[in-house]
Amino acid sequence: MIDFLKTAVDEALKSDNGHLDLFLRFLLGLSVQSNRRLLRGLLTQQDGNDQSNKEIVQYIKEKLEDNLSAERSINLFYCLNELNDQTLVKEIQTHLSKGSLSSGDFSPAQWSALVFVLLTSEEGPEEFELQKFKKSDECLSRLSAVIKTSRRALLNDCNLTDKSCSALAAILGADTNLKELNMNNNNLQDLGVKLLCTGLKNINCKLEILRLCNCSVTEEGYKALASALRSNPSHLKELDLTGNDPGQSGVKEISDLLQDPNCQLKTLSLCECRITEKQCGILTSALKSNLSHLRELNLSGNELGDSGVKHLCDVLKDSHCKLERLRLSNCSVTEEGYKALASALRSNPSHLIELDLTGNDPGQSGVKELSDLLQDPNCQLKTLRFLSAAADEACQYVERVVGKNPLLQRELKLIYHELGDTRVNQIAALLQDKHCRLNTLISLCGVRLFVSRVLVFVCSLDWILVAVSWFSCSLLDYSLDFTHGLTDTTRRSPISTDHHRPSKSLCYHSPADCLCSHVSVLTFLCVKL
Fold it and tell me: Coiled-coil stretches, from where to where (predicted)?
């Protein structure tokens, strides 16, 4: 009996299409003690059941160490289930429950067990995240069967190289559920991207989102991507190439792709890709020739300048433009670029709903030019972003407490509003931002604010403290001397503020980074130089 069962296992493993898989499971199920009576009369000799059961279980486990294909190994686990042996599966489930999979060195049988557990999980393989396991090329290769059945594969920040790309190309070229592939922050280089492109070209590839941020891709990789997507343009909707260097020809390759009427890209991110004003002109020229698909464009972190923004404005003015989100943070845009954007959006106000200009310099009127757009009933703009997260928190806070937008003010009073450390940091971020045109800040703070920290911020931002008042106080005999920041703490005569120093400096009598229980309220007036 045992020899017969071993032969059946061997024959099933030889099959390329798995046509013996169900037969093997059925046969092994019949071989257990509870079902052995069904075989009476068919077998002339019966082995001791317990011993033969253990022997065939061990034989199957030995086969699992042979680096079988995922399909064959999965069937062997179903066979072990028929034989009432779940030792390998329970071992892997223990690792999963403890979260210790990332630290273990697995045998081939354990890898197979992990694949089996993940594929048969009740939750289903909707999303696969490699960081939960081991961040390596080997782990990706071992778990490729799980990736193949997932809709989202999050493989970012996993120390992957071009070695993983062959396995991924095979997955992309197969009939899979995979719709999103995130490879951000892996050193794939051009070779890895070219390998991925063999899968992207395949007509079976249904990938919709591809993220390749900071993957060391150069113009050669850009060329391969553009070629692959022209070969199979109908599915990919989102492409993120943030942090890669397209070189001289990479932007042109992507631009040619955008001109293809079959290109379905809706979201394109070329953030921090060293794109120049000239390359921006090439990109916008392509966009003008095919305005029907792209909905989101991220060009943040590129030296576009006002000239580059004006090229984009030519696209925004077009009545056929369907662009909804435009991100231009840290693009060296000045007041002239802000005015061009405002003019373009006034001439075609119906589509853009989000504009990000964080980290640019609006000059005297840039903020007002664009803010006035929000009053236009035809304008669809819902989000106009000027500030970093911290500065935006401060802006919203100020608008709540004083009822005015601080970006449109020259003087700000925060009288009778307690400012904690977090709020101080946020307001400092707001003062630093070039979108903030405040030149006078009056604030009254409770003593639980570290006063010296406020003043260090003030003095580092071309601001000067010109007045201090206090009440209900008994100050310690200390003062702080600020010259471009906190420099010295010395004993001085009571309160002295110097209004005549030529640089951003001041003397301020305070508890010097310590809390004084007798001081209840401090008021300070700061003016920008």
Answer: none
